[in-house]
Structure formats: C-alpha cells, structure tokens
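Record format v2
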Amino acid sequence: MAGLRKILLVEDNPELQKLYKLYLSEHGFEVTTASDGEEGLEAAKANKPDLIFLDVMMPKKDGFEVLKILRHDANYGCTKAKIVILSNLGDTNKVSPEVQKDMDGYVMKAEIVLSDLLEIIKSLE
Amino acid sequence: MTIRQKSIALLLVIGLVPTLVVSILAFATISTELNKRTADQISSIAIKQQQTLNAMLQSKQEEAIKLANGIEFQTALGNYLAKPGQPERAAVAAIMRNHMSDVTGIKSIHVTTLDDIVLASTQSSRENTKLPSSGSADDIFQGPVISIREDPADGLDRLFISTRLKINSKDTSILQVVFRIDDLQAAVQDYTGLGDTGETMVLTTDSTGKTASLLQLRFTKDDIAEPPYSLAKDGKSYDYRGHEVMAFSRPLGFSNWIIATKIDTKEALAPITQLRNSVITIFIISSILVAVIAVFTARFFTAPILSLARTSKRIGEGDFTAFSDVKRDDEIGELAESINAMGMNLKSFVANIETQRNRLDLVINSTDDSIIALDYMGYVLIANQSTANLTRLAVHDLVGKRITDIFSWTRDGEAYKINYIAPGTNTYTNLQYVDMAGETHWVRMIVARVSSEHAQKEAQTIITLHDETKTRELESMKLDFVSMAAHELRTPLAAIRGYLELITFKMKKMPDEVNGYLAQSLKSAGELSGLINNLLDVSRIERGTLTLHMEKVDLAESVARAVEESNFSAEDKRIELSYNGPSKGHFVAGDEIALREVVNNLISNAIKYTDKGGSVVVTFSEAGGQISVAIKDTGHGIPKNAISHLFTKFYRVHGGLNSGSTGTGLGLFIAKSILEHHDGTIGVETKEGVGSTFTFTVPVLTEERLAGLQQKEHEGALTTRRHRGWVTKNTTR
C-alpha cells in the first residue's frame, strides 16, 4: 500500500460515510470526509488526497461535476489523484465516455462487501 | 354504329332495293317496247305512203298511156307527122286539150321529138321549144318514164310522164304529160304519226349513187346527199346532221324512187326519257319515304331503348330516383319494368348499406383507436376520427393519401416500413410515431388483411393503431417509482450490510449464538439486496435498458458450477440434486452473469417447490445448433391455468402471501427476458402433484452470433454486474 495513504471520502449518506471511514481507518488509511460536492472540492484542495471516493448523487454538486473539476482544474491539485465513483445506479446509468476517461474506478455501493474496498485500493496501486 | 343507325340502314336496303329493281326492269321493258313500236309506226307510215304514192302515180301513168294509145290521137298525130302543117298540129293539140280537161291535175301535154323538141303542145307557145330531157329514149322505149323536173314554162317542179309513141311503126316521137305535183306533195306532207320532227321524203338515186329529194321536205329543201336512206332498214337509228334519227324506207314502183320516213330519236323516245325521269323521281320519292319510315320505325324501337339506357345510366350514377316511363306491352316494356324494379331494389339496398355504413362509421369513430383501411396499393380508403386526432390532419385529407405519406413509424429507433400486402393473419407491432407537432406517440399497430380470393386488387388492409403513449407514460412513472424506491432502499441496505460486516470483522471473539444471528442478518440483507436487484432488472427490462455484456461463455461450466453452488441448499432441504451433463466445453455467446442468474433461479425455484425427499435433475444437452438445459423436479407441479401467466412479471402460482412459499414472481420473467436477449427460449412441462421440467435453450456459439450480439450492446454502458459490484481501470479480473 505504498502510494495511496490519504483518502478523501465524499459521501452524503452519513451512515455509509461513517462506515467506510471506520473500515478504512481501521486498515490504516488516513481518511477525510466531505458530505456534498462543494465540500468535497474544498477538502480535495486542502488535503491533496491520493485517492478520492466520490459519490454521484449529492447535494450542491454531483459527483460527475466534481470529477470533471478535479481532473481538469489544477488549482485543486488533484489532476493526478485516483478517483473512484461511488454509485447507487449501477449499470442502468449510462456512464458517459468523458466520465469513463476521467475516473479510475466505479463502485456499486449496494453490491460490494466492505473488504472489496481494500481490493479496489489494491487494484489501483 | 348504334342500333338506330343499323335499323335505318337495314330498312333502307329492304325498302329501296325492290323499288330499284322494279324500276330498272320496267324501264328496260318499256324502253324496248317503245323502241319497237316507234320503228313499227314509222315503218307502217312508210308503207302507207308507198301505197298512196304508187296508186297516184299509177293512175297518172294510166292516163298518159290512155292518151298515147287513143286511136283518135294516133290518127291525128299520124296526119301531122305525115303532113306537118298548122291545121294538123292544131288537131293534135285539140285532142290533147280535151284529154287535159278530162283528167285533173294535168298542167300541160306535149309531143316531142326524140330530141325533146316540142312538135305539138296544149300550150301553143311551147311549140318548137326544147323540153327538159326526160331520159334517154332507150329508157322510154322500155316503158313510161316518170320524173319530176322543173317546168320551163313557169319554173315550178312538175311530174313528167314520158311515153313512147309508135306511129306508123316509127318511133319518132314521145308523149310528155306534165302533171302538177300538189296532190303528191299533199300526200307526202301528211306527217300524221311522225310527231313534230318526223318527215316523209321521196328520193331518187342517180347513176352516181347520189340521192336527191324529189318532193319538198318538211324542214329543208336541201338535196340530201347523205345518208343513203335506201340503206335505212328496220328502223335503226343513225346520225343525221347532228341529230340521232330513226328512219325507214320503201321502194316505189316507179323509176328508182324511194319513199322514206324518218323521225328524230329524241322525240320518238321522248316518252322513254319521261318514263326514265318518272322512274327516277319515283325512286327518289320512295327513297325519301322509306328513309322517313325507316327513321320513324327505328325511333319507335330505339327511342324507348335510349330512354331506358339513360335511366340505367342515372341509376348507375347513383340516382336511384331515376324511373323509366316507357310503357309498352312488348319486350322493351318488360325491360323497362325490370330496370325500374332494379332501381327500386338498389335504392333499398343502398339505403340498407348506408345504414350499415353509418353504423360502422359510428363504431369506428367512437373508438379511441385509429382505424385505417387501405387498398392494395397502400392508399387510404377509410380513416376514422381518432386517426385524424392522432395525425392532426382532417379525415378528408387522409383519405386517398398513401399510408407511407401520412405516417413515418420507427421501431427501436429504426424506420419501420409497414407491410400492408403481406397475406396471413393479424400482425402486432409496437411502433413510435412522431406527429406534426413533434410529439412522440407509442402505438401498437395491428395489421389485418381483408383478403380476396379472386383478385389481389380487391384486397384491403385494416390498420388499427392503439395509442399507448399515456399508458406508457403511466408505466414509465411506475417504473421510475420502482427504480427510485429500489435505489433509495439500497443505500440504507448497503449501510446495514456494511455495519453487519464491520461487527463480524471487529468482534472476532463472540459467542456462536451471536455469530449465527449475524450470519442470518447478513443472509437476509443479501436476499433483500437480491430482491431489490430483481426489481431494478424488471424496470430495466421494461424500459429496454437491460444491458448485457456479450462474450464467449462456457455454458456447460456455468451450469455445472450453478448446480454445485446449490448443493448446499438442496442438502439443507434433503433434496437430491444431480447434474447430468458435461462439466465444460460447450460455448454460447452470452452474458455469463446473466445466464448464471437464469440457471440459479431455475434451480432454486425447483428446490423451493419440491418437498423434502424429492429430487431435482439438471440435464445438459446439445443438438441441432441449440444447447438445452432441463431442470426437472418432483415438486408440486403447476396448475394448467397458471402456465400461460408463468413468465409474466409479478405472477406467483400460489398467489397470496400466506401460501408459505417466498418469491417476488419476478425470477421467471427476468429469466425469459435474459434468454430472449440471447435468442434463446424457455418453456415448461408440468403435471400437478408430479413435478415440472423447465427447459431453456440458447444457440451454440458462432463468431457471427457473437459479433451480432456485441453490436447490440449499448455503447458506453458500464456493467458492474459481472464484477460483483465494482470495476477499476487497473482491474484485469
């Protein structure tokens, strides 16, 4: 787990946010959280995380918007960070080619078990 | 040619031909007869004239001979010849004067020498003068010579009868009796029977053959050099100075005289000309009469026919009030009655049809569905009000248009061409149609054929369009709701599962009892997740957004593994689960996860509906390019009335919630949809109380099939299904 120590978790559901933070912290990751898109952007700028878990359906700015800004706006210092989309929609949602290009991974929250988070991180290193 | 023209022509032929024949025959007969009669007439006139003249000349000659043979005259002349003195001459002259006074018509009497020198005369002034020659003495010695010559005494024509006088056995003198020719002239100039142009001529031919007229002619005194009347025989016609004449001649008994009658043919045949003109006139008049009769007769027969034709035409044009007033007791009358009856029948027939049509109009216009009738060329014959509403066009604008000019349908995004001439039973198609206002309608189209055995051209097509747009909107809202509800359920569920996992993860040393509860909670959460996934799958299927990732799949391996994975739950229920088939090596083009879901679903259903101690047998086989997988159980079986609903969504065989069995009734519906995406099929054989066999088929893999199915995949669709919920760019799983 050499590179990806600092994780930003942008998730508006407090239970899931808490759960993932708990689980990831338990496994030695440095996790910061944000509860909406704008908060997420600020946190990203402040913390310069290695990996960002980004919920899609959030207040203020949705995940895809945030993804686009982080990936293309150098001000946030995250153009090189790994960004994984957290979604509830699964394959019913057509993911646009831009999003596919910008993201590094895609997760169906309802379909995974907690240990999958570790596998996802591992696969991105 | 109309009947009228034909009958006129026929009547003209019938009426005129006999008239013409009779006229020509009559004309010919009369003409011949008249010709003959004219010839006979002038011939008889010639003969009569011949007799008259002969008799007159005969008596004159006899008078001359009587004088010449008189003793007294011969004695006196003998005395004079012997002694030619005045007293002797006077004696001869006196006898001659006596004779002259006895016989009428004598102008003068002379005795001449053979050289025509007058010896004695009733006219003393003529003595010793020379008379015109009465011919050679030789001729006279043969008998009296008769000639008509100019009398030198006064220059008038006279008849000279020269007779030989043989006195004292000496032929030295000739008696010349000169007659006036008035009587001859009068006789000849009797033109009775010769009309206005005919005449009689007394002619003589001299030794050179020249013909001369002896008596005055009726019209001309000219000598007639030609033609030789002597040759005019049998009343034949010939040309005479520019006139066609008919002539007839007879020789007189004296000298070489000829009596001839001639008549102008034109005049002679005038009756024939008149007759001919009459015949022509009669013919023309009768022609006109016949023509008039023909026209009237034709009218008599054709006028009612024409009237009937007009009535029929009006009926044919839809005027059923047309009525023929032709009243006759013949066939035409019958025809008229038939036509009137036909008109009346048609009227009630059409009224009947109109009633039915109105009823039909009412029916087709009172439905919300668009109903369109097309002819075999695809032109609209009938369109109802709903069609007008759907297309935003007026009904009368629709009728007569081509169906393809009115609608442009699409199906699954591609232009759809209606096949309205395809024979056979009704076809059902779901289509989209964008109206003029740009509004999309979802329509269900039913094409029905009204076929005609006789002619393709009579065939019609009835198209019914059921506008499902509103239904679909409602359906869509329902699906949206289901989808949204499912998604909303997923987040807390994910949290529940996550915390349960966290507990399991963190509290490693817990009593077994607690571990069991945790496992049960996780299992229930997993079932709930599966249920939510099913609901989402249904909404995807319904929206047509079910996305499968097509690749080469070893179906044998998938089935074998699914059986293996189900062993645990089968054992749990004490059901014997067996697999009868290969463990790998049979490939199809498909979505492995989806196909596994189908197999799992069928096996778990079989286990679910089979009682303890029963068996479930899974059989795998390949034949004819199809792989079929049969899942046979010894379960409850399915009631017959349920079979047809089995593969529809939300259907559960045993209905109510208290039936004891679990399930959403979505599994078979999803299985069927997934198989349809693979061009596969699913079916069931079942017997209540004995068991059921579900069999599904999928076509064997070919490169084309795989390529074709992959083509259908939605671009940009990302499936996490096959990666158990997540995927990253670095993943090579």
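Chain A touches chain B through 37 residues (CB under 8 Å).
Chain A has a mean pLDDT of 84.
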